[in-house]
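Dear support,

Our group has been running a series of protein-ligand predictions, and this particular one with NAP is the one our PI (initials K.S.) wants archived with full inputs and outputs. We had some confusion internally about which version of the output was final, so please treat the block below as the authoritative record. The input we submitted was:
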Amino acid sequence: MAWTVGLIGHPVGHSISPIFQQAAIDEVGLSARYEAWDTEPQALAARVARLREPDCWGANVTIPHKEAVIPLLDEIDLAARHIGAVNTIVNREGRLYGHNTDVVGFRRALQDLGFAVTGCDVVVLGAGGAARAIVFALIEDRARSITVVNRTAERAQRLVQDMLPLTDGDTMLKAVTYTYLAEALKKCRLLVNCTSVGLKGSATDGQLPLAADLIPTGSGLLVYDLIASPPVTPLVQAARDRGVRAEGGLSMLVLQGAASFELWTGQPAPLRVMMQAATKAMAG
Ligand code: NAP
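Confirmed final output from the archive:
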């Protein structure tokens, strides 16, 4: 049988997921096509219903449907439930399971950099869907403290309220406004940008999510920018200019996709091939 799987979003034309997922499928020799399914909100229910067909593995889900798909699925895993967003759907004999692989993608990206989160003080910029996945991962990995800073203060407060019950008292989790950012950055060892500020082609293309002179310096510090395009974001460049180790989000993008691939196929993802295809697609 020729299988199908795809990306549900609107728009989807800019996404490189079809490229590196197809490269993975071809590399392991499976007979499947990964397609881009541009889906307007009113067509979402019908698109998701089609995932139940026996020839379909499921889908990735991206903006703006990550929350809206939840009521259309049969089961949601713990992480996706707490985060409130699904980015991977798996079809198991007509039943649809929702997952959020941003958690494992982020975790594996930090592991590959040799960075250990346990006992570490972290500042998270942003409080949208991606920030919720990152905070969930940081709590699970027992960061010592997580300070969430967001332009819209209420959104950061809501994130903290939702996640606080997960901390078991091991992690100090709080929301502060940008006024207190400098203070929070003084002792932080990991700064994660989960805002979209600096995203190529957006209104904030070329901009930094914080003043360059606030970027903390010091040995053992890591700046991780979730933004994958451009590969070297303004934040990554500014941090490197200050002598700080900094990485963009391409590694996480590929690793979250690899986790989706493993959920669909039950096979290890060919990471090297996926990363090569993604890097080439970004360059082109
Ligand atoms: P989202 O839910 O729309 O959240 C966007 C965040 O950016 C919010 O916190 C928003 O603040 C903030 N923001 C936007 N414009 C801003 C500005 N001009 N000044 C200050 N803050 C601003 O988006 P998301 O799904 O969380 O995604 C966030 C970013 O992460 C995107 O760039 C996305 O591409 C990236 N991402 C990467 C991966 C990966 O695998 N590498 C995975 C997921 C997401 P307000 O709340 O005040 O609006």
